[in-house]
Design goal:
about 120 residues; mainly beta; globular; four-stranded antiparallel β-sheet
């Protein structure tokens, strides 16, 4: 059974970097052909942030691209999200999820609340 677990600070100060880790169990993050995504929810809507693919390639939302970096540690089977210059508008529940292509997400983490506030 594949499980995803997000972790990281629940409170970030404005202008600091928001950093989260997604630990994956039950599957390797290098397994073809999955994409490991970060998605956030503030209010009702879901916002896709970006992904790192099984190959290591990345793609980001155009609106967040300048501030976003997604990386991986294959030895620990972890995906990391870094969002620089955080603002209160980045306050959201952050999820990591596995995509098997075609925007189909078949496994989700439970999500972690991040608040950006001084």
């Amino acid at each position: 059974q594949v499980q995803l677990q997000e972790s990281g600070p629940g409170l970030v100060k404005p202008s600091q970097t928001l950093s989260l880790i997604c630990t994956v169990s039950g599957d390797s993050i290098t397994t073809s052909a999955y994409y490991w995504s970060w998605i956030r929810q503030a209010g009702k809507g879901l916002e896709w942030i970006g992904y790192i693919a099984y190959s290591g390639s990345t793609d980001y939302s155009p609106s967040l691209k300048s501030r976003t970096s997604i990386s991986r540690d294959t030895s620990r089977n972890q995906i990391t999200l870094q969002l620089t210059s955080a603002t209160p508008e980045d306050t959201a529940v952050y999820y990591c999820a596995r995509e098997r292509g075609g925007w189909v997400y078949d496994v989700w983490g439970q999500g972690t609340q991040v608040t950006v506030s001084s």
